[in-house]
Amino acid sequence: MVRDGIATLLDAAEDISVLAQAADGHEAVALTREHRPDVVVMDVRMPTMSGLTATREIVEGTDGEGPRVLMLTTFDLDEYVYEALGAGASGFLLKDAPVEDLRSAVRVVSEGEALLAPSVTRRLIADIARSRREKVHARPESVEALTPREADVLRYIARGLSNGEIAEELFLAEQTVKTHVGRILTKLTLRDRTQAVVFAYENGLV
User: Domain named HTH luxR-type: which ranges (predicted)?
Assistant: First the structure.
């Protein structure tokens, strides 16, 4: 019932088409390979194969060009959130989010942006990153490769700002910010903005 309800709500949007539904992780991977959707809306916990494993299998080998995964979770402190981000998920949304938030999340993720529910991002990532940072004695060389401006942009990314908002904060053209974001991801060998957020927290940039 929940799956049918979500599919109906998404399909009702003029710019979103639901291609298929999967009952478990194995089916999700198979249907993704068959239909090649722009976005996979994935439950964290599923039978036979978890959403984490399914996400990893969907994302592996795509070089950022394949389907993007938006994870749905019941709890804003689900212990699997961080692992899912590491597996390549592009976003996280709580199941109690308003309908329009879900539709908006699909659109954002499809455009290659990261989307994390604020309660997930600020508490979970900060808490996990803080515990990991205590074990880090020196920043990796990749951080030192960033220019001061790129480091500033990365800090704003970690705070959840869009390219347009960062441009306003730094008095830059939005295209310039987009260029900085691309260079940051390349220098740090990160897949997308979501991984950039995690990296920034882990390495004490925010």
Answer: 139-204
Question: What is this structure's pTM?
Answer: 0.64
The distance of Cα 86 from the centroid of its chain, to the nearest Å, equals 10
Give the CA angle between residues 7, 91, 30 to the nearest 5°.
55
Please state the length of the chain: 206
Within 10 A of 175 (CB to CB), how many other CB atoms are there?
A: 10
What the chain holds in terms of domains, given with CATH numbers, is 2-125 (3.40.50.2300), 138-202 (1.10.10.10)
- Dist. CA 28–CA 49, nearest whole Å: 9
d(CA 185, CA 200): 12
* DSSP letter string, 151-172: HHHHHHHHTT--HHHHHHHHT-
Of 81 and 178, the structure prediction assigns the larger pLDDT to: 178
Q: 3-state DSSP: the chain helix, strand, coil percent, rounded to 5? A: 55, 10, 35
